[in-house]
Design a protein that fits this description.
Helix content: 55-70%
CATH superfamily of one domain: Tetracycline Repressor, domain 2
Number of helices: 9
Number of strands: 0
Distance between the termini: 62 Å
Radius of gyration: 21 Å
CATH topology of one domain: Tetracycline Repressor, domain 2
CATH architecture of one domain: Orthogonal Bundle
CATH class of one domain: Mainly Alpha
């Protein structure tokens, strides 16, 4: 018998293709900015035909909104919301996030800034839908921190704190620190804010059996 070879049929994974487009666009928006990134840049770097890109994202605006709502929101979820929700207290969670981000910046060797901050500065006045999407991420971020402070008050491990004001203070401190870190190209501003926050943030008044990570 003469051996025969079977040509392996290439399969198309639409979810993976869409994800690759979003990953590339997110990276380019972070490094170069939304306006400086063209749809052709995304096609080339993602190695995806133009027809595929426009099938998932008919316009650059739709691609930008998807990056904000899926990738940038996901980064805030991973960097802030999940660690805060699983920390033993709000204050400990905040300090731990600052430590983690500073260590990550050291490892990267270059500071491209906070993806959310970068897009806010570039897009928040450009389009009401961009503004809405970016504001929604800030709102979720702030409300997560505020809720953890409320939980600590309810559990009796904090005595006096305005949860909403403290949450806004934390988010503003982090956003400003990341902008300064981008300008300085090092993590020193993040560490400076971390140390001051550790001093100013309300600390648990006493150990409590009710202190347990939220799931």
């Amino acid at each position: 018998m003469t051996p025969t070879t079977t040509r392996r049929k290439r399969t198309y994974d639409p979810r993976a293709t869409r994800a690759r487009i979003l990953d590339v666009a997110s990276g380019e928006f972070q490094q170069r900015g939304y306006h400086a990134t063209s749809m052709h840049d995304v096609m080339r770097l993602a190695a995806v035909p133009g027809g595929s890109v426009y099938h998932y994202f008919p316009t650059k605006r739709s691609l930008g909104l998807a990056v904000i709502e899926e990738r940038v929101a996901g980064m805030v979820l991973q960097t802030w919301i999940e660690p805060i929700n699983t920390a033993s207290s709000a204050s400990e969670g905040v300090v731990a996030v600052f430590d983690s981000v500073a260590a990550s910046l050291d490892g990267n060797g270059a500071v491209s800034g906070c993806p959310l901050n970068n897009l806010v500065l570039e897009l928040s006045l450009a389009d009401p839908d961009f503004q809405r999407a970016l504001r929604a991420i800030f709102d979720q971020w702030e409300q997560t921190i505020a809720q953890r402070f409320r939980d600590d008050l309810d559990a009796g491990i904090l005595r006096t704190v305005d949860p909403q004001v403290m949450a806004t203070f934390v988010v503003a401190s982090f956003s400003g620190a990341m902008s300064l870190a981008k300008a300085a190209q090092n993590a020193a501003p993040v560490r400076a804010c971390r140390h001051e926050l550790a001093r100013l943030l309300p600390q648990p008044s006493a150990p409590s059996s009710r202190q347990s990570p939220r799931r």
